[in-house]
Design goal:
- With 367 residues, the chain is an alpha/beta fold.
- Among the domains are: 21-77, DNA polymerase, domain 1 (Orthogonal Bundle); 211-352, Alpha-Beta Barrel (TIM Barrel).
- Helices cover 34% and strands 23% of the residues.
- It has helices spanning 28-37, 43-53, 68-77, 150-164, 183-194, 214-222, 243-249, 252-255, 258-272, 290-300, 325-337, 358-363; strands spanning 2-6, 21-22, 78-79, 83-91, 97-103, 108-116, 119-124, 127-129, 144-147, 168-173, 206-210, 224-225, 228-229, 233-237, 276-282, 305-311, 341-344.
- The radius of gyration is 21 Å and the shape is globular.
- The relative contact order is 0.13.
- Bound molecules: iron/sulfur cluster.
């Protein structure tokens, strides 16, 4: 059922290049400053930024409107990309592509490209591994390797586009890692991929998913870009209607209780006026009863919220079971009867290593 293509092993570069900065990591302004330091005209920054983030250059040599001399000096100053495609699995059912990427230090991360009609959504990782310990998640089993840089995060999108066409219009930061614990790189990434001289993705087409890092949500609510609040979408992983149940599956709940989390969510909504999404992984017998639906609805009352119901992915180590389809529908209907909008996430790529982190685990977390 599955097409698996092994692309290439992780490439290692010479020791001499390892301390150099990845050019993908620079914002357009920073690139301009570096070029000025190199004695170049500022307009070159726009040209080079566009080659990197819009025109899909695969090396400095692709930048044919840049002089050979400058290309040579760029090679001496910068690494061209620190992320490499290792493996891609292609679903025979719906064309979903699951990627395993390797970074310069051989840390592995995953991404998924989902196709909807004539556009695609990239689900990307923000950290290699994860320290948060959610019990139903394969990405956290080996803990956190390291934060990803903004350039590595952007390259997840560009390598997917190089593999399967240039039509990624939406980005969800919902792969491995807790993005709000990699905050500065996250913001830099958003600045880079929304730059109109680069990929130019609308903020409204970007979703950041958090397991509930309260200070991060508050900080995000206060962010100011070009005189206004951020317009990205925020998805909060709740997965339980109360602290008692949440603590059993999400260690983060020990630190940030439900009341505090809901206050932060409300604060985000008041500042940005963006509708909030709450992720709720349905686990048979754990959090899918009528009482759970009632309590959850009570929690979310008054918030402009959508509950995204996700039948839990069967990860061997977690022991959780997904409810039957009819029970998922019934839970959604109950929520709606209590006045809260719900949707059941469409399953894509169910014939490939579906749950986030499984492909990485199978391959070994470092190559
Ligand atoms: S669900 Fe997200 S936050 Fe929780 S362990 Fe997995 S990757 Fe980390």
């Amino acid at each position: 059922m599955t097409a698996t293509v092994f692309i290439m092993p992780c490439l290692r570069r010479k020791m001499s290049t390892e301390m150099m900065k990845d050019i993908y990591d620079l914002t357009k302004t920073e690139l301009g400053e570096r070029l000025t330091d190199m004695g170049e005209r500022p307009y070159r920054a726009k040209q080079i930024f566009s080659w990197l983030h819009e025109r899909g250059a695969s090396s400095f040599d692709d930048m044919t409107d840049i002089s050979k001399d400058l290309r040579k000096r760029l090679k001496e100053e910068f690494i061209f990309g620190g992320l490499f495609l290792d493996t891609v699995q292609i679903s025979k059912l719906d064309g979903t592509r699951k990627y395993l990427f390797a970074m310069e230090d051989k840390a592995l991360i995953e991404g998924v490209r989902m196709k909807y009609r004539d556009w695609s959504t990239a689900c990307i990782s923000s950290q290699a591994g994860c320290a948060m310990g959610c019990r139903f998640c394969a990405s956290t089993i080996s803990g956190l390797d390291r934060d990803m840089t903004a350039g590595e995060m952007a390259q997840e999108i560009y390598l997917m586009e190089r593999d399967a066409g240039n039509n990624i219009s939406n980005v969800v930061i919902m792969g491995s890692g807790e993005p709000l614990l990699n905050y500065d790189n996250l913001m830099r990434f958003i600045d880079i991929i929304t730059d109109p001289d680069g990929k130019g993705i609308s903020q409204r087409n970007i979703t950041v998913s958090t397991c509930g890092i309260v200070p991060g949500i508050r900080r995000l609510a206060e962010e100011n870009r070009n005189g206004g609040h951020l317009q990205i979408n925020l998805a909060i992983s709740l997965h339980a209607p109360n602290d008692e149940k949440r603590k059993k599956i999400m260690p983060v709940a020990e630190k940030y209780g439900m009341d505090e989390l809901m206050d932060a969510a409300r604060f985000y909504y008041e500042k940005t006026h963006r509708r909030l999404t709450f992720e709720y992984a349905l686990m048979a017998g754990e959090n899918d009863s009528e009482e759970d639906a009632r309590e959850l609805a009570g929690r979310l009352k008054g918030l402009n919220a959508l509950v995204n119901l996700i039948p839990v992915n069967p990860v061997r180590e977690s022991g959780f079971r997904r409810p039957e389809r009819e029970n998922c529908v019934s839970f959604k209907n109950k929520l709606e009867n209590f006045g809260i909008n719900g949707s059941i996430r469409r399953e894509l790529g169910s014939d490939i290593d579906g749950a986030c982190g499984q492909l990485r685990m199978r391959k070994g977390k470092k190559s």
